[in-house]
Amino acid sequence: MPGSFASHFTDWMVSIVTREPWLGTYDNYGQPQFGPPQSVQCYLEDRVRMVRDSNGNEKASTTTLYCFAGPFDVHDRFTMPPSFKGPSKPPVLTVSNVNDKNEFSHSEVYL
Strand (E) positions, the chain? Predict the structure, then answer.
């Protein structure tokens, strides 16, 4: 089958979110430090599903971002587009970085 998986779904990636990558450090007040913002093209799916957060607790995710960019970290910060009906910077519950045939395919960010 010619073309990559991503090439079949790029027409769905109609939303632009802003990602600030977590730098892996905290400031003197214990606040996480982030890198410069990056625009990321995604598909936003409004669907409620139960996921486990980074601490293993079961949480209700109401939105999933499907992005061919990544991989992402659960500590990254995302700013949603103005049309999003919810908080502009919702908490990230968990991230799934999906590999296809031993290489990165896409990221699923559960909010």
Answer: 15-20, 22-26, 32-34, 38-52, 58-67, 77-79, 94-100, 103-110
pLDDT tens digit sequence for 42-80: 999 999 999 998 889 999 999 999 998 889 999 999 999
The residue assigned the tokens 């996921």 is 51
- The total number of structural domains in the chain stands at 1
Distance CA 80, CA 7 (A): 24
Establish whether the linkage from the previous residue to 36 is cis, with ω within 30° of 0.
Answer: no
* Beta bridge partners of residue 103, listed in sequence order: 100
The answer to whether residue 49 is domain-embedded is yes
Which phi and psi angles does 85 have, rounded to 5°? -95, 80
- The whole-angstrom separation of Cα 64 and Cα 73 is 14
CATH at residue 80: 2.40.10
pTM over 0.90: no
With 50 as the cut, is the pLDDT of residue 25 above it? yes
Mean pLDDT (the chain, rounded):
89
